[in-house]
Each structure stands twice: as C-alpha cells, then as structure tokens.
Design a protein that fits this description.
CATH architecture of the largest domain: Roll
Number of strands: 7
Radius of gyration: 19 Å
Order of helices and strands: EEEEHEEEHHHH
Largest sheet: 5 strands, mixed
CATH class of the largest domain: Alpha Beta
Bound molecules: FE2/S2 (inorganic) cluster
Distance between the termini: 32 Å
Helix content: 10-25%
CATH topology of the largest domain: Ubiquitin-like (UB roll)
Strand content: 15-25%
C-alpha cells in the first residue's frame, strides 16, 4: 500500500501495490507524463522508464547518496522517493545540469579540473549534492573538516575525498565568478567574464587544493 495526495482534490490518497498512477512532472525542463506503478521508485522511473542513467543507484536505502537528484530545487534521494511522490514536481538530474549550450555547470567543471573521481560511480550524486549546497549558499571559508561534514551524505569508496573537497571549494569560486544563472542560452559575450581563471587563483580564500589536472576525464563517460 502506498499513500500520496490526489492533485485534483488535494485529498490524501491510498494506492494498492498493483495500482498504476498517472503522473506529470517537469524533468530537466521537459514536461513528462507517464503512468507508473504506485510503488515504483523515482530512481527506477528515471533510469528504466526515461533512460536517465546518470542517476546512479548504490545502496538503495538512503545511505550512499549516489541517487541524488534535485526535487523542486533541493537535493533528494531518488531511491527513497516514489515516482508518485514527485507528481507535480520539478526534477533535475545530472543530465540537466550543464547549460543548453553545453557549458558545464561550475560543479561539473570543478570536478573535472580537480579530478575528483576515480571510478565515477559516486560522482553524479556528489555533483548534485554539491550543486544543491552551492545553491543554498555554501560559504568558501569553511575548514576542510566542516566541508567534509557538509559532504557526509555522499559516500565514495575510491578517492579518499581529498579531491572532492578541493573540487567543492573550486566550484564555489567558479560559481561566484559566473554570477547568477543566465536565462537565455545565447547571451554570453566572447570572454564576457565567464572564463575561469587558473584553479585556486582567488586571493583571500582558503586554497582549493585543486591541482588542475591536465588529463581531463570526459564528463559523459561518468554517466552510465
Ligand atoms: S542509492 Fe540512494 S542513497 Fe544510496
Ligand atoms: S570515485 Fe569510485 S566511488 Fe567515488
């Protein structure tokens, strides 16, 4: 049995396990309508029904953070969310993070620059979590310990976290340099303040620790 809310009436609704429910949600800017089993997880809906396999599934019980997406602008575990619970919501996955022009989101760029990954399995979840933290105003003067605490909702079994911490600092810098998100994709003037300086170049801040890898991994290889 699954509970939800009837959008038409606003009344609580109880679904049986084999019920199918019509849902509508906006995913990465596109309106998606579907009929889903009442107990289908949002992570399964994204991956298996829509082919958005950038959202990874690790533990399936809310511990590892690999399945993190943004639900109405806030990071959420898609393995702990039913697709019916996302009815009427805005969902953003890692596939929707880069600009329509292909310009990487500051967190994607920083993870690439700082080589904040090894196998890449945890990476989409980290990227979505860090993007959420930055949206909420993550300050750049936190100690490494404080920053690691903020990142504790995501697990990585490869990297030892050092480069992930560095990439998070770098992402804050890049985000500040870029300013607020631009509404239209074709407005950036050549070099119009959107080009990133050398990693860790900002003065008066904690150093990012990012070494600026010269062998950059391709972003799309991490999303399988
Ligand atoms: S798969 Fe969702 S938290 Fe691990
Ligand atoms: S890079 Fe392998 S789990 Fe994080």
């Amino acid at each position: 049995m699954t509970s939800g809310t009837d959008r038409a009436t606003g009344e609580p609704q109880v679904y049986e396990a084999d019920d199918r429910v019509d849902v509508t949600m906006t995913i990465n800017g596109e309106v998606v309508r579907a009929s889903v089993p009442a107990r289908m997880l949002l992570s399964d809906f994204l991956r298996h029904e829509l082919g958005l396999t950038g959202t990874h599934v690790g533990c399936e019980h809310g511990v590892c953070g690999a399945c993190t997406v943004h639900l109405d602008g806030r990071p959420a575990r898609s393995c702990l969310t039913l697709a019916v619970q996302a009815d009427g919501c805005t969902v953003r996955t890692v596939e929707g993070l880069a600009a329509p022009t292909g310009e990487l989101h500051p967190v994607q760029q920083s993870f690439q620059e700082c080589h904040a990954l090894q196998c890449g399995f945890c990476t989409p979840g980290f990227v979505m979590s860090v993007a959420g933290l930055i949206d909420e105003g993550l300050p750049n003067d936190l100690t490494d310990g404080e920053l690691r605490e903020r990142l504790a909702g995501n697990l990585c079994r490869c990297t030892g976290y050092q480069n992930i911490v560095a990439a998070t600092r770098r992402a804050i810098e890049l985000n500040e340099q870029r300013g607020p998100p631009q509404p239209a994709p074709r407005q950036s003037a050549p070099g119009g303040g959107r080009r990133a300086p050398a990693p860790g170049a900002s003065a008066g801040r904690r150093p990012t620790g990012c070494t600026g890898s010269t062998t950059l991994p391709r972003w799309d290889r991490w999303m399988c």
